[in-house]
Amino acid sequence: MSLHLDARQRAMLQEMGVTVWGPSPAQEATAQPPASAPSALAAVAASAVAPPRAQPQAPSPAPAERPPAPPAHTTSRSTSPAPAPATTGPAAPALRLHPPQALYPTADPAQTPSGLGRGWLIVAESMTPAEPLGGDAGRLLDNMLRAMQLHRHPRVFLAALERSAPGTEASADIPATLAEAVAQLQPAMVLVLGHVAARAALGRTEPLGRLRAGPHVLAGCPAVVTYDPAFLLRSQDNKAAAWADLCRALAMVRSAEAGG
Asked: What is the pLDDT of residues 127-166, one digit of tens each?
């Protein structure tokens, strides 16, 4: 380490008894680096601490362009399920209405019990319109009418409804046709048997239990709705309820006859 002492400083140190070991002033003069040395050393130091120059890299390939995403409302519209179609009840079967026919035409009017009124019109679906009291359902209907003593009445008529076969024409306006039959026959009671008959004759689609409870009128004539014989063959437990409906119809006829 050089102290760079001049002659005066050296003399002072010698007077203080301090021995200075080092090169003489002439040697110090020759040992000093040239003026350009500090700048050279600074350049060397800067190169030593400077970070290495980054090597140029090849440009990466541009990513493939993706098609733009559809708008949110478009996506939700395309993925949302279509609304379910409105459900409706079963369509009414196409029916053919046969002209009313007397069920007991040979009954003697003189032997007709009182309280049965001037006549009855029965509307029911029949599998055998040509022979309405035939088959199991027909025999059950006959038993029901006999229990009411109607087999002894010559003016008991059946307007049979038959499901139209493919290729056959259904009746156009069944309620209007039945209204004409009521006007012609003038029955004291219209007995509607079964839901199919109630829909065709009265234009009602409520459950049969509700139809049984309510009063009905067909072309000005009182009407009672009850079970049809074909259903009662499948559901024996409802026979008591059907008999109650028949008794109610009889009571209405008797009340009207007593009041008239």
From this structure: 888 899 999 999 999 999 999 999 999 999 999 999 877 7
Q: How many C-beta neighbours within 10 Å does residue 114 have?
A: 7
- Residues 8, 2: Cα–Cα separation, whole Å: 16
Beta pairing class for 216-218 and 189-193: unpaired
Structure-block tokens of residue 194: 């079964």
Question: What's the rounded Cα separation, in Å, for the pair 37 and 3?
Answer: 19
Q: Is 65 helix (H, G, I), strand (E, B) or coil?
A: coil
Of 230, 254, 52, 75, the C-alpha closest to 140 is 230
Report CA Rg, the chain. Answer: 59
Locate 244 and state its tokens.
Answer: 């109650």
Query: If phi over 0 gives left and psi between -120 and 50 gives alpha, with beta otherwise, what is residue 219?
Result: left
User: Contact, 116 vs 146, CB < 8 A?
Assistant: no
Tell me the average pLDDT across 212-232: 95
> What is the per-residue pLDDT for 139?
95
Cβ–Cβ under 8 Å, residues 101 and 134: no
- The Cα 208–Cα 191 span in angstroms is 14
Q: Are the C-beta atoms of 123 and 201 separated by less than 8 Å?
A: yes
Q: Residues near 85 by Cβ (< 8 Å), separated by ≥ 6?
A: none
Beta bridge partners of 190: 121, 223
Number of neighbours of residue 196 by Cβ within 10 angstroms: 21
Contacts of 242 (CB under 8 A, 6+ apart): 144, 226, 227, 232
Q: How far apart are CA 164 and CA 171, in angstroms?
A: 9
H or E stretch at 178: helix 174-185
pTM over 0.85: no
Helix (H, G, I), strand (E, B) or coil at 87: coil
